[in-house]
Amino acid sequence: MTYFTRRTALAAAIAVTTALTLPGLALAQDKPTLRLSSVVSDNDIRAEAFAEIAEAVSGSFDMQVFNGATLVSQGAEMTSIQRGNLEMGLIAPQTIAEQIPAWSIVTSAYLFSDSDHLKATFDSEVGEELNAMAAEAGIHVLAPVYFGTRQVNLAPEMEVMTPEDLSGVTMRMPGGDAWQFLGEAIGANPTPLAYAEVYTALQTGAIDGQDNPLPNDYNMKFYEVTSQIVLTGHLIGFDVLAISKELWDGFTPEQQETLQSAVDEAIAKSTQRHLDRESELVQFFKDEGLKVYEPDRIAFRDFAQQKYLESEFAASWPEGMVDRINALAE
Known about the structure:
alpha/beta, 19% strand
């Protein structure tokens, strides 16, 4: 036996011995790797949920969570999954709508009445249809992830009771056609601006206001440079936790059940945490000196829904789907 042959045999023997004496290592190598990319900060309630999911599935998957858009840039999660460069992502429905126009229905103002209505929709036949569209595009929807109801937050001292009262008000909205139209649908003059620049823009008067769920207003300290929060409740904010359909289809039924169960439990807890936090923050903002009040929501809803029905977005909505979603709130 030559030196090379002896050395090769020795290396093989060591490898076998290691696998036998360290079975955990061998098993770990068999676990599918799931890299989850999200834009949320590490102190976000949703980040807690993702950590809980990773822990719950640790026996079956090597789940790695990358928050703060540190792995994939915001808005690129869906295409990264489609290209096989990412396993899981937290995807804005507005991003999905860019590829699947029918999905713009779930980005429209006043479609969902609350988080329960959102969940009921995705648990229904409507949800099955939406998820089937996403599956054709290569992503499997695990769950809608609620992160709060969007409210109007303004710097000027004024009273807003109807959409007409927002006429001429420069409202920061995220970039993208769907977001900009949302601003128009509540009567404002929308302008795109990076999230990180909103505080300074409010402080200097470059914009009059912005819209976000109350926890976001608190986290970003927008209450320091604004005078009021108008509880328009114009959009039930949610993103979609999704995974590569090709990857999902390759899992065993047991693996699918493990992951889906962990997601369902963690997202249910996350939703309740958000609802509790929103309730607490109404009083917090009042204590900080902000006016917090509810406008004529019927006027806002009627105005917004008419805007959407007359828009090019509605042309892509499946016939009768709005009525079916409305019926689920009853």
